[in-house]
Amino acid sequence: MKKLLLLGAGYGNMRILLRVLNNLPADVEVTLVDRTSFHSLKTEFYALASGTVPDSDVRVALPTHERLKVIEGEIAGIEVKEKCVLLTDGKQLQYDQLVIGLGCEDNYHDVPGAEEFTHSIQTIGKSRETYKTLLNLNGGATVGIVGAGLSGIELASELRESRSDLNIKLFDRGPRILRDFPERLSNYIQSWFEKNDVDVIANSNITKVDENFLYNHEDQIEVDAVVWTAGIQPTKVVRELEVEKDNSHRIVLNQYHQIPGFEDVYVVGDIASLPHAPSAQLAEGQGEQIVTVLKHVWNSESLPETMPEIKLKGFMGSLGKKQGFAYLADRTVTGRIARLLKSGVLWMYKWHNG
After folding, report:
1. Name one Pfam family in it (predicted).
2. Is the pTM of this model over 0.85?
């Protein structure tokens, strides 16, 4: 039997599973390794941490198949020359084809104290812990959110909706919210924060974090809890993999999403070096193309001369449960309609994934 091994139950590998299991060749078996026995909706972890949705709302059951084996475990190392994956419990898994979709973790940018004294929404487990911390804060406590990208914006707005008694400070490194997108979008989000008493601190530079203080430039700011949403980096296992990477430690690939020199290894999701910013949408597009390549390989067919460009539709974000924003086909959409669009996309995703 040919062995297809998938590492990580993220958006990319979920798309691969759903496509290959529908028409799995008789001589192929699939193994998926993840730290949990379910697929987590990482794009919704901000709501879990804020306490506005239950844990069950960000979990999706994995598909089932007689030739799919799911292993709960942590990856200790990947030996691409030996075609072997090592687990922390000592197990070794051999493969014929490997898809690495291990995702990212927080990037603290060497800021002293950031890793020790901040909370995270990068995994479902860390999001649960962040929720517990925020839930137990007294009224009037101050929460600092470092990083005003999509995750920081959604966390700040959702936390405001669940805890009107907290002081929320959102630290943005740029001169305005989402500075790389139309000013109308930035102004709408900024206006929402002003109306809902979220303090956005522009042009910030967090230089140090202590247990109860943030240091922005030379200013010392007292805080009761800090959540870090200021960038990501590939997981340690991926960073240690001895293959070519870009300046952000993401793995350089050929057009078939394979590691050059190790064409039996594919990479999907946030750890892939691509011309687009990491997103669930991009990972799913990669997953579709990887399935196409795998089918050619399994059938001993020549690969296509070129692969089509992955076209992204844009992005959507929420401001609480009633308002939102979207940037679709170079057009800005704000308000209730944008929030309904995001809710609809999430519902459709869950429906298509069973």
Report:
1. Pyr_redox_2
2. yes
In 3D, which of 15, 219, 235, 224 has the Cα closest to residue 105? 235
Q: Which two tokens mark 267?
A: 């990479």
Q: What tokens appear for 205 in the block?
A: 């530079």
Torsion 277-194-175-207 (CA) sign: negative
End position of a domain, from candidates 199, 230, 261: 230
Residue 48 lies in a domain: no
Q: Are residues 148 and 212 in the same domain?
A: yes
Six-digit token string for 21: 């299991």
Per-residue pLDDT, 353: 85
φ, ψ dihedrals at 38, nearest 5° = -150, 165
| pLDDT tens-digit readout, 38-70 | 999 999 999 999 999 999 999 999 999 999 999
Is the CB of residue 196 less than 8 Å from the CB of residue 212?
A: no
Please check whether residues 179 and 86 belong to one and the same domain. Answer: no
What is the reported pLDDT for 40? Answer: 96
Please write the tens of the pLDDT for every residue from 154-190.
999 999 999 999 999 999 999 999 999 999 999 999 9
Give me the domain span that covers residue 159.
108-230
Residues 200 and 242 placed together within one structural domain of the fold: no
- Pair (237, 99) in one structural domain: yes
Tell me, yes or no, whether 124 lies in a domain: yes
Angle of the 11-20 helix axis to the 280-298 helix axis, nearest 10: 40
Burial class (CB in 10 A: 0-12, 13-18, 19+), 61: exposed
Looking at the structure, do residues 112 and 101 belong to the same domain, yes or no? no
Element (H, E) at 258: strand 258-259
- The reply to whether 162 and 221 lie within a common domain is yes
How many helices (DSSP H) and strands (DSSP E) are in the chain? 9, 23
Report d(CA 292, CA 317) in Å as an integer: 31
